[in-house]
Amino acid sequence: NISVLVRSQLWLASQAFIDQIENTGSYRFLSCLKFHMYSGSLYYKSINVNITFVSFYLRPRTVWLGHPEKRDQRYPRNVINNQKYNFFTFLPGVLYNQFKYFFNLYFLLLACSQFVDELRLGALYTYWVPLVVVLFITIGREAVEEIRCSIRDKEVNSHIYSKLLPRGKSNQRVPADMIFLRTTERNGSCFLRTDQLDGETDWKLRLPVACTQRLPTADLLQIRSYVYAEEPNIDIHTFNGTFTREDGDPPVNESLSIENTLWASTVIASGKRTVGVVIYTGKELRGVMNTSNPKNKMGLFDLEVNCLTKILFGALVVVSLVMVALQHFAGRWYLQIFRFLLLFSNIVPISLRVNLDLGKMVFSWMINRDSKIPGTVVRASTIPEELGRISYLLTDKTGTLTQNEMVFRRLHLGTVAYGMDSMDEVQSHVFSAYTQVNTMPPTMAPAATKVRKTISSRVHEAVKAIALVHNVTPVYEANGVTDQAEAEQHYEDTCRVYQAASPDEVSLVQWTESVGLTLVGRDQSSMQLRTPSGQILNFTILQIFPFTYESKRMGIIVRDESTGEITFYMKGADAVMAGIVQYNDWLEEECGNMAREGLRVLVVSKKSLTEEQYQDFEARYVQAKLSVHDRSLKVATVIESLEMEMELLCLTGVEDQLQTDVRPTLEILRNAGIKVWMLTGDKMETATCTAKNAHLVTRNQDIHIFRAVTTRGEAHLELNSFRRKHDCALVISGDSLEVCLKYYEYEFMELACQSPAVVCCRCAPTQKAQIVRLLQERTGKLTCAVGESPRPHALLRPSNCTIDPTKQCEGKQASLAADFSVTQFKHLGRLLMVHGRNSYKRSAALSQFVIHRSLCISTMQAVFSSVFYFASVPLYQGFLIVGYSTIYTMFPVFSLVLDKDVKSEVAMLYPELYKDLLKGRPLSFKTFLIWVLISIYQGSIIMYGAMLLFESEFVHIVAISFTSLILTELLMVALTVQTWHWLMMVAELLSLSCYVASLVFLHDYIDVYFIATVSFLWKVTVITLVSCLPLYILKYLRRRFSPPSYSKLTS
């Protein structure tokens, strides 16, 4: 064991953890860490600090309270560090990441070769200045990112917490993984917001340890107790541990589960003061273990550009070998090869990478500043052009296509159903159940009386069950007229707010309030309901079985204080509740009907228990919860012993409304050639209805519902059935999908990719990630994942680009994991159709122009060397070669990032324009070859024209050719621009002015007196026109007889 003394900024609620010190009036302390190592021998520099460790393993731990002799327990430092580098590794790390790629290393070797006299071709700065400029821009960009990341980390790490966490108001972020010991809330619980941890916007109920909740806060550090916690792991939804108090009589032993935890980075949404004991810190935090190291994504466009640069490098080698071969490999030909490699090094443009990176930054800035998609955040500034060629968009349903805001729509009792238009009947039944006044007319028949009472009692039982079986807590807030204490005492309706882990539960409780049975109070052990007459019904909460994604149900056991009756209520998904409730002939049919209407269905049931039955269950349940091994299985077995032959009370249907403008957005994506797949965990009927309602499946399209298959033969038959259908949307469940991918992966993906839309329901997070990977492997197309799922990383991580649609983009782990964050799903249309399209087309134009600029001067050098007996002598030297790719042409070429072929309104109105980009035509081998031929033509014309028209001195060739080259580049930019921006004009004039002004200082390379003559002017004009005019004529003819798709829209 090696002890390390380090600084931390977190108070732990245990004397055994900390050595308290005071520093300038604010509380801070030094926390001791302990690592278990595997090593043959260990060496110490000093008593407190270790010098080396090999590895450490995650282990269970016992955290002691009130045991000073256990002070040697030590754990990792509780700080967050999201930086890629530190102060010492920044410069070496950035340089390594730049030069680990071949082309950057190639340019470094070229620059270093100029220190060798036999290889030097000119001044050192002609090779070093461009390289240093590129490195300076790259280092500056990385430095800005690191500084921003450091500021965010420092802000989080500098929070000062009181010794008992946290003191004062709610809405404070939990600083470490903790066990919940005590709260000052009257209801003995608190709610957490876990959006930054798991992406869920719902609130989670957390309960303190029962024996510590009963103690005063000051006594927590005086008791002799300990917490046994499992080893740190990445599962944020489960926890196993025990809390033991040794000084009790008898000793107290309580089980700990996920309900007793406060994970780091969650926010305490309610609770005046919350006290916890830290169990995990630093690298062992659940949130940190779920976070991957920051990496820069490389998009398909970058890979294509790299492929083109490899072709250019091959051309560079070939041209150099040809030049030496034409010399018949005379003399020291191997040195000549290196000299020609240096001479033609411009063929591979060193400025290509930095121009594209700066362009990406501009595109990201435009997206962030677009007022029509406010709140959009670009987190991956390296791939904005990927948005311009998405072929498959995979989306979640809940919270993405829908608002995740539930509205109660239907109550079904089997023989009768109540919709929104008949809720007044439910209200009257509830009112009559709690009043003793008989309002029945005397003439009503006895049979009718019996039926009326039966329906009334059934409605009453259903409403009462819905009002009890939940984890909702009413919270009272001051409203300016009534203070919080008074509102809580008198159950003021205007001050009451419901807090719950699920919006479904809130909508159900709000509905019971609307029909007369109001939840007015709740704490850890009791619940209060108010009847329509104002009477308060008190219930004791004996046990709660919370909802989990595995069980898909929740239950509660309550005792009615007025009658002493013990009742077990349960609600859950129909798939699991069908085997729990008593036999009936209507459950499956009505669940299907409600699901087809797009409603989320819950089945509500109850079971009456005697005192003996409950005591027997409680003894077995407590024993199972204290188990350390296989606790979940043992607890589930005990609970299942109660879940038999329960009385079916009712079905509830709530609607998750679609987000604004989902239908037109999906129509835009469909018209743009993007296929949309919906991957959801909801049941098949609900998912199918949502797909129809959102127009993911059009009205004229058939739907093939893939029947449930379990064997290879069944999957084969069902795939053949689907193969015979054309233009048909596919709906498949997660179980059937798993079977198909196991036996017929290729065939299934081939058929699914041909379908216009695919809906995968009951889909597990791992299946979502598998589908994304298979789409990429089988089709080679770009995928975009859009999701706000409870476990978003599974869907987001494998995709080419990821988008998170959430109303609060900041501070949410799904958003932080996504490449782009938007506030509404409808913003996807503009993000892809406008910004994605423009970014891709502009990046393609920019990269081709940079390549054209380099090939032009390289062609001129090749012509020059060929004419002068293949001599390895540079045509331009010194500042001419440096200025050509910087101040003389950089601004006009880079201004192409502002160009656009159509207005944004036109791109949104005609999404079919996006479809052209899916073929990759803006940057392809064809367009690359065209630009290579243009560069060779213009370079040859300029060089041959200058040599043909020069008079007596070589310096005149330099003046004529270089001036023509600059003018040609400026004119080519002007001819390429489709929509002029005022900055483009400024760039053109600025570059031309810089060149004219610099002629005064270039007398070593250019004859200043010659350029002032008429002869110089007409020769430059003729050469420039011959190099550019034919291209303009060809462009005009092409637009005239073979116009692009957007030309008709711009006229």
TrEMBL record:
One of its GO terms (cellular component) is plasma membrane. ATP binds at residues 396-398, 505, 547, 571, 600, 680-682, 762, 768. One of its GO terms (biological process) is retrograde vesicle-mediated transport, Golgi to endoplasmic reticulum. It catalyses: ATP + H2O + phospholipidSide 1 = ADP + phosphate + phospholipidSide 2. SUPFAM superfamilies: Calcium ATPase, transduction domain A (SSF81653), Calcium ATPase, transmembrane domain M (SSF81665), HAD-like (SSF56784), Metal cation-transporting ATPase, ATP-binding domain N (SSF81660). Residues 68-127 form the P-type ATPase N-terminal domain. It comes from the Eukaryota. Its cofactor is Mg(2+). Coiled coil: none annotated. Its EC number is 7.6.2.1. Mg(2+) binds at residues 396, 398. Its main location: membrane. PROSITE patterns: ATPASE_E1_E2. The chain crosses the membrane at residues 122-144, 307-327, 333-356, 850-870, 876-898, 928-948, 954-975, 982-1002, 1008-1034. The active site is at residue 396. Gene3D superfamilies: Calcium-transporting ATPase, cytoplasmic domain N (3.40.1110.10), Calcium-transporting ATPase, cytoplasmic transduction domain A (2.70.150.10), HAD superfamily/HAD-like (3.40.50.1000). It holds the Pfam family PhoLip_ATPase_N. Residues 816-1043 form the P-type ATPase C-terminal domain. It is found in: Membrane. NCBIfam families: ATPase-Plipid, ATPase_P-type. Belongs to the cation transport ATPase (P-type) (TC 3.A.3) family. Type IV subfamily. This is Phospholipid-transporting ATPase.
